[in-house]
Amino acid sequence: MALLSLDDLAPGQEYAAGPITVGRDELIAFAREYDPQPFHLDEAAAKETFVGTLIGSGWQTAALGMRLFAQALVSQSTSMGSPGITALRWLRPVLPGDSLSAVIRVEEVRPSSSKPDRGMARLSMTLTNGRGEAVMTQAFAVLFARAGAVPAPRPVERSTETGPVAEPDDAVPLPYLAEAELGTTRDLGAHRFEADDIIAFARAYDPQIFHLDAEAARDTHFGALCASGWQTAAVWMKRLNATFARDIALTARSGPVPQLGPSPGFKDLKWLRPVYAGDTIRYASTLIDRRASRSRPGWGIATHHNTAQNQRGEPVFEFTGTVFWQWEPPAA
Fold it and tell me: Is the separation of the CB atoms in 220 and 79 below 8 Å?
């Protein structure tokens, strides 16, 4: 069967997939690897947090959306990957046992004016649970090859770095959001993307050939095995948690520790360059805005801009996110 190309897509088309059921063990396994916050790991610990119950990581929800998108369209298409996400909102938490379904709608199709072998489709996705409630919405873009086109592989400069990546040992006090200094950038440390991990993540969430098979990937436009963009994002969360764990431990030595809550979503996520097997990616996060929450007394919403670069100093990833953050200490 011929793969769907850019020329087969038109505004108004819809593609559906699901349901897939997400069990407790799958939610906790993802959280242990990428997002080890109490409300993703343990029911008892979750009761003492902002959300009050065990929920799935939002980054896993996004990755599950990718799994459904692959079922609905990508696996039968000439997909060349995504340059980014315009906006994503987490509307409801994913709970153990939830069954998720997705509807993807084609909003716009635009052939490239500079590269006649490809073009871009702008898409929207709504992810719903088994009760028909929307849990996530997403506006994003995907590149597709034109009918009959075989985009040439790009040259790839492979990393020669080996050995373990050093874990930072620095720590700074974690303030309540009302006292946090805007413009502060926190280095989140680095992570090396190994081929086996890239393939394992792709099998679970993003089964495109350039994420799954090193030999086959060489013949694609990427030119080599590269990580799913959602893995690049999940590792940002992994590095943020590792950094905040040190900051929380330091803060606890001298006083109360602010709680962090879940994220309502993000915008302007860009995958700027492929992350190849062997690349070492360094992440950073800058607090750019804050406001007190009107709906949750004692809490605020922090806005942060996040970046990542590879071992050559080239930018590979950025986005602007939001997160609930305790505004000030509870009243005595």
Answer: no
Place of tokens 């109490």: 38
Contact 83, 271 (CB under 8 A): yes
Residue linked to tokens 């393939």:
199
Cα angle, residue 188 at apex, residues 184 and 181 outer, rounded to 5°: 15
Please answer whether residues 141 and 52 qualify as being in contact, where contact means their C-beta atoms are separated by less than 8 angstroms. Answer: no
Single out the residue of 58, 331, 285, 296 nearest to residue 174, CA to CA: 285
- pLDDT at position 331 is 75
Angle formed by the axes of helices 195-205 and 58-72, nearest 10°: 70
- Distance CA(179)–CA(202), nearest Å, equals 40
Contact between residue 84 and residue 269 where contact means Cβ atoms under 8 Å apart:
yes
Predicted confidence band at 196 (pLDDT cuts at 50, 70, 90)? very high
Long-range pairs for 297-304: beta carbons < 8 A, 24 or more residues apart: 298/326, 298/327, 298/328, 298/330, 299/50, 299/261, 299/324, 299/325, 299/326, 299/327, 300/177, 300/178, 300/324, 300/325, 300/326, 300/327, 301/264, 301/325, 302/177, 302/180
